[in-house]
Amino acid sequence: MNRQLFEYSYELKKQNKRKVFFTIFYLIFIYIFLNLIFSFVIFPVKQSSDSMQPDFPEGSISFVTKIYKVPKRGDVVFLNRRINPNHKFYEKIWHNVSLFFTARQYDSYVDKNFPDTNNQLRRIVGLPGDEIYMKDYVVYVKPAGEKHFLTEFEVSDKPYNLTFITPPAEWDGSVGVKGSFDPIILGSDEYYVLGDNRLSSSDSRLWGTVSKQDIKGRIILRYFPVKTIKLY
User: Fold this and answer.
1) Distance separating alpha carbons of residues 97 and 103, to the nearest angstrom
2) pTM
3) pLDDT tens digit sequence for 184-218
4) 156 Cβ contact partners less than 8 Å away, ≥ 6 residues apart
5) Would you place residue 134 in the very low, low, confident or very high pLDDT band (cuts 50, 70, 90)?
6) What is the dihedral sign for C-alpha 139, 143, 149, 151?
7) CB under 8 Å, gap of 24 or more: what pairs does 2-5 form?
8) Mean pLDDT of 24-45
9) How far apart are CA 40 and CA 108, in angstroms?
């Protein structure tokens, strides 16, 4: 009787160990799988400022896809950080480790005192070959081969909203973030990007155009707040 009880107890312990082992293995597999998805396919991004409101208010969370080849007018894109100094070897190791164990939600390269150390969401308003200018915070676009300027809303395939005000007649548009600028022609690999909050955004008005290499993905879904879920 005692022998049977012992054998039963031993077999039960083995089964429990196998369950624990497979549970741990399964959790590790899921975690690694999610990190691979976040690294190469799709990942969540939290909007940390008011630069993209009203469509992407501060605190909103969206999914960005890295499977993105042709930037299009009106796309909200995920850009490389504007400030990316050389980091020491141990800083690079810590950076990669922190990205992995936080599922890419903590970035050790970001310095809150310097907003341009963060990856940013911005909207494409100008494509290579476009001639563009801004007046009263609205962009006017003459696509390559066209004869007339149209507003950014007329040439974009995707509707969107902006935060701006019509300035008074005596307002100096050269003060602060520009509300107006003269026509410029974009080069073969130049994209003009702006924040939707035209009054408070660090964008191409301050640091110039971006290249296709600077664009790391585009927004495909805003899923938080839940009541404002929207596909892009």
Assistant:
1) 10
2) 0.80
3) 999 999 999 999 999 888 899 999 999 999 999 99
4) 73, 74, 125
5) very high
6) negative
7) none
8) 84
9) 19
The pLDDT of residue 32 is 82
Largest CA distance in the chain: 100
- Residue 15 CB coordination number (10 Å): 10
Least confident of 30-39, 50-59, 64-73, 170-179: 170-179
Rounded to whole angstroms, how far apart are CA atoms 87 and 90? 8
Write down the CATH number for the domain with range 44-80+119-224. 2.10.109.10
CB 72 within 8 A of CB 11: no
